Amino acid sequence: MEKSIFLFFILLLTNTFVFCQEDKDSLADNYIYPPNSYNNFDGLTPKESWDIHKAAYIKQLKAKGVTGKEYKKSLNEYEKQKADFLTRVEEQNRIAEVQRKKNEEQRAKNKIQREKNEKQRTKNEIQREKNEEIRKKYQKWIDNTEEILSKNIIISSQIDNSKPISFTVTSNKTLYLGIRAHVKSGTTLIEIFNPKGNKEGELSLKSQLGSNNRESEYTSGAFDKTISTTEVGEWQIKISSQKSNGNVAMSVRQSIKSVMNE
User: Fold this and answer.
1) Alpha carbon of 125 to those of 58, 119, 121, 128, 175: distances in Å?
2) Which intervals of the chain are annotated as region Disordered (predicted)?
3) Statement: the pTM of the whole predicted model exceeds 0.85
């Protein structure tokens, strides 16, 4: 009985040793490989990184008891992969440098674009403030004036516009005259006369020829006048055109206050 127990104990120790040895050999066989990639986070050069792996591999070979020709063969096979590793590292660094430069260029472009956007936002803000100022002034002007005339006249060779357009002014308060005209052919003359028959102003337009000797699409013009002491009575606007096509917009307003800050 005691002999059987002793034999069982010997078998148990033997199997345990064999299992541990196989596991150790398996671990050794799969422990050290040539590096597949490289980074310099630890401050090592590619060659230094390779030498560390190689030293670990040599230690592994010695731990396995590899010597002589087998040792030299294994080390030579391992060393053959060095050139491939360094080439991969060189390519990796080249690609990284190209990408770094691209990123740097993109950051510079982004910075320039941000500065442009900021300048444009500033310009837009200034323009909004100007537009708001103009709107307020215009609204104040509208609130302090009354409309006397507002017309849009079509100019055409088939339409007779020879009849003057008349409007009556009953007060000598400030008068505002505004004419806008657009013609695409011929000539157009717009004249404004006060009740005494004196001309207060005119707008003359002649269609211009383009680079291909064709008449331009439109010739535009504007006339604005402020009359502080207005003649009371019937005013006239006369339109004379020759072979013209287009339109004339006219506006007459008068201050509703005796004194107005223009």
Assistant:
1) 72, 10, 6, 5, 34
2) 100-126
3) no
Q: Are 168 and 195 in contact (CB under 8 A)?
A: no
Sign of CA dihedral 143, 148, 150, 155: negative
What span, in angstroms and rounded, lies between the C-alpha atoms of 109 and 122? 20
Give the number of C-alpha atoms closer than 13 A to the C-alpha of residue 223, restricted to the C-beta side. 20
* Residue 252, amino acid: V
DSSP 209: B
Kindly state the tokens that stand for 25.
Answer: 């050999």
The whole-angstrom separation of Cα 73 and Cα 201 is 108
The span from the CA of 91 to the CA of 97, in Å, is 10
Give the separation between CA 45 and CA 80, rounded to whole angstroms. Answer: 19
Rounded Cα gap, residues 48 and 44, in angstroms? 6
Q: Within a 13 Å sphere around the CA of 114, how many CA atoms are in the beta-carbon half?
A: 6
Q: Which of 58, 2, 64 is nearest to 29 (CA)?
A: 64
* Rg value, the chain, Cα: 49
Residue with tokens 């040895």: 21
The CA distances from residue 256 to 173, 195, 244, in Å, are 7, 20, 37
The per-residue pLDDT for range 136-181, each reduced to its tens digit, is: 999 998 999 999 999 999 988 777 777 899 999 999 999 999 999 9
Q: How far is CA 221 from the centre of its chain?
A: 36
Cα separation, 250 vs 157, in Å, equals 20
Give the three-state DSSP class for 59: helix
